[in-house]
Amino acid sequence: MSETGKPYVVTLGTAGGPRWWRYQGQSVRAGISTAVVVGDAVYLVDCGYGAGRQLIQAGFGFNDVAAIFLTHLHSDHIVDLTSIALFSTYEITDESRNPIALIGPGDRGALPHASPHAKSEPRPVSERAPTPGTVDTLTRLVEAHATDLNERIFDSLRPSPLDAIAAQDIVIPESVGFQPNENPSPDMAPFVVYEDARVKVSAILVEHPPMAPAFGYRFDTDNGSVVISGDTAYTSNMIALAENADLLLHEAIDLEWLMSKFADPSSPSARATRSHHERSHTSIADAISIARDAGVGQLALHHLVPGTSAPSLRKQLAAEPRVRAIVPDDLDVLPLCSR
Ligand SMILES: [Zn+2]
Ligand SMILES: [Zn+2]
Residue 72 Cα, ligand 2 centroid: separation in angstroms? Predict the structure, then answer.
């Protein structure tokens, strides 16, 4: 990695879903996490299972991380934020550096509606504040480890994660009309959420009900652009965000696998699982059409469900030769300037 090197992406983890996947003996992918490397800085998008370890495997350290972006607060995207925050007390060795920026959704503002199939009113976790945003999520997970952290802070004189990581909730422009339940992904233009000397990062709302807000991110650099969809169903906002980008990492679900795994039409839970995935995630055909309509240089599918090896996905991509598309493995390096 050098100041003069071209920017690139490392796919730290490429599996979607709150699972440790096991499927027909195939190899298992790490949880979703992507490193955008620009000059001497690393920008992480999402912290799925194993993200911190994968970052080290890719040859980086926490001193290299300038900022972390969370697409949304589902556990498969933030489970390793805990280890990153706790281990930052030792992994950040450059004590003169600025805090790592942590940027993600704000408080949802309202609970999702209860399912019509609920037999009684569900009881929420953390009744007084049941939908924390990024700032409160980080604070609470750090506070849950107070016994450990206070020992490090008092006895070993290590920094608190709350000083090492500066969390911010994204403020959605009011004019957009966002409502978590009624209007989670209105048509809108991307808006800037972070900027430094190397990158400008823009966000847009995507469609991932009932999770809201959920964002996709775009990184613009002097030497190329990359867009990361987060979790989303097909939405025209992704076409707006990805317009003419060099590289689009889009989530994808293997519908052939979904239909075979949850085939029983008489099972309410199989029907509910199929319906959730169909309204909250993107098929391979739709990911291809977004890439084509946005005019991106290259499409890479990730957040794979199932999160194992991907012969079926690669076969489906091969049937659509009009778009340059790949299914990366964990720790693959993808250049931004690939046209
Ligand atoms: Zn996910
Ligand atoms: Zn999700």
Answer: 7
Query: Is the pTM higher than 0.90?
Result: yes
How many whole angstroms from 310 Cα to the centroid of ligand 1?
Answer: 17
CA of 16 to the centre of ligand 2 (A): 8
Which tens digit of pLDDT belongs to each residue from 55-88?
Answer: 999 999 999 999 999 999 999 999 999 999 999 9
Instruction: Compute the distance from residue 35 Cα to the ligand 2 centre, in Å.
Output: 18
Q: What is the mean pLDDT of the chain?
A: 92
Task: Give residue limits of the domains in the chain.
Answer: 8-112+132-335
Distance, CA of 213 to chain centre: 13
| Model pLDDT, residue 272 | 78
Residue pair 40/2 in contact (Cβ under 8 Å)? The answer is: yes
The set of long-range contacts for 170-179, using a CB threshold of 8 Å and a minimum separation of 24, is 170/103, 170/104, 170/105, 170/106, 170/134, 170/203, 170/213, 170/215, 171/106, 172/106, 172/205, 172/213, 176/205, 178/205, 178/212, 178/213
Which residues touch 225 (CB under 8 Å, ≥6 apart)? 218, 219, 244, 245, 246, 247, 336
pLDDT one-digit tens code per residue, 105-124: 999 999 999 988 888 999 99
Distance 151 CA to ligand 1 centre (A): 34
Amino acid at 127: E
2: CA distance to ligand 1 center in Å? 32
Q: What CATH topology corresponds to 8-112+132-335?
A: Metallo-beta-lactamase; Chain A (3.60.15)
